[in-house]
Write a structure and sequence with these properties.
Keywords: Membrane, Signal, Transmembrane, Transmembrane helix. With 260 residues, this protein is mainly alpha-helical. The chain has six helices and two strands, in the order H-H-H-E-E-H-H-H. It folds into two domains: 74 residues, no CATH class; 151 residues, no CATH class.
Length: 260
């Protein structure tokens, strides 16, 4: 049921080309054994956040085997990404300044649109790899696109937004100035900052609101618990919150799937 959620026909071809080099001999392989040869696939090797996995796919898509460009990429990166020595992670310093044309993305799935960043931002850390149960692994940018296409199940959207918030560079972790395409995605309430509720305890867990969820119809499954910390919570309490939410998230995803 979920096998079509992330990959379309073009992505499937790219995956086949990289995984099956013997059948598709025209693609440029960064490692001799294709992606299986990547010893440290998630190592960041460029200042724009490019990982070895992303580079391997780009090389396979963009260059033909035996071309001068292919040879150049192999000479520059094969030893780093395919060798036994662990690469030194490069600091991400390049600020993302290009955004996809949101109007060109068609909704092809059966679900509502799901923004990776809860407040409508485009993820500023586009190369970070996320792995989600029943969906698979993909970069923040890829998750954003399939979310716009309606390919992320509705019950997985909230957990995705919660756990992608910092890794994908949303809210106060953004390096692109909290980019929005339109004013519609901005919060129209009196609290006009763009950070979600879990990064601003005062807006939901203040002393006069703890345990009182009346009128809070827009809360998510993890909100409204009177045992959650207030704005004066310690670091340990906030760590407990994240760990507990993670456990509950996995439980809900698993039971929801098998119940269906």
């Amino acid at each position: 049921m979920f096998r079509q959620l992330i990959i379309n026909s073009q992505a499937l071809f790219v995956l086949a080309a990289v995984l099956c080099p013997r059948q598709v001999g025209a693609v440029c392989l960064l490692c001799e054994d294709g992606v299986d040869g990547l010893k440290y696939p998630f190592a960041v090797i460029k200042s724009d956040g490019t990982s070895c996995t992303k580079l391997a796919v780009s090389v396979a898509v963009d260059y033909e085997e035996g071309s001068s460009q292919c040879t150049k990429q192999i000479q520059a990166w094969r030893e780093i990404c395919c060798g036994d020595k662990q690469p030194i992670d490069v600091d991400i310093t390049d600020v993302f300044d290009e955004y996809p044309d949101i109007d060109s993305i068609q909704q092809v799935g059966p679900y509502e649109k799901c923004n990776v960043c809860r407040d409508g931002d485009y993820p500023s850390t586009t190369s970070m790899v996320l792995t989600m149960l029943y969906i698979g692994s993909g970069s923040c940018a890829q998750y954003w696109k399939v979310g716009q296409q309606g390919l992320i199940p509705d019950h997985l959207c909230d957990p995705l937004q919660y756990f992608a918030y910092e890794p994908c560079g949303c809210g106060e972790f953004s390096t692109n100035g909290n980019y929005h395409w339109s004013e519609d995605s901005e919060d129209e309430s009196s609290n006009d900052d763009k950070t979600p509720w879990w990064s601003n305890a005062d807006s939901l867990f203040g002393d006069d609101q703890v345990g009182n969820t009346e009128g809070n119809t827009d809360g998510d499954w993890w909100s409204g618990a009177d045992s959650f910390p207030s704005s004066s919570a310690s670091y340990a309490s906030r760590t407990w919150l994240y760990a507990s939410a993670h456990i509950v998230c996995l439980f809900i995803i698993s039971t929801g799937f098998f119940a269906s």
